[in-house]
Amino acid sequence: MTNAEITKLADGLSNNDICELLNRIGDRINIYYGSANKNCLTSNFLSACVNGSVVQINCETTEYENRVQKSHG
């Protein structure tokens, strides 16, 4: 696909469509969300959902209560 075709496709997607797409390809997504004490903080994709007017992306690490705080705080 060309950039123009991808832009046209993306512009035509609703937030629900984006969530559906992300959930279908989630095993191909890894999320970097910062660093702490010279360690990269990453997580595998867990799911996507609509939260109000935005798409919310949930990480596997959100299932571990206070993981960053306990190991890096």
Characteristics:
73 residues; alpha+beta; three-stranded antiparallel sheet; 3 strands; 36% strand
Describe this structure in words.
A hairpin with a 2-residue loop joins strand 1 (30-36) and strand 2. The protein is globular. Helices cover 36% and strands 36% of the residues. The mean pLDDT is 89. A 3-stranded antiparallel sheet has the order 1-2-3, covered by helices on one side. It has one domain (15-72). It has helices at 3-11, 15-25, 67-72, and strands at residues 30-36, 39-51, 54-59. It starts with a helix and ends with a helix. It is an alpha+beta fold.
Task: Describe what is shown at a glance.
The protein is an alpha+beta fold.
Secondary structure layout plus pairing:
Blueprint: H1 3-11, H2 15-25, E1 30-36, E2 39-51, E3 54-59, H3 67-72
Antiparallel strand pairs: 1-2, 2-3
Would you report the number of β strands? 3
Q: What characterizes the major β-sheet?
A: 3 strands, antiparallel
Q: Which overall shape is indicated by the principal axes computed on the Cα atoms?
A: globular
Structural class: alpha+beta
Element-by-element helix/strand order? HHEEEH
Radius of gyration over alpha carbons? 15 Å
- C-alpha end-to-end distance: 45 Å
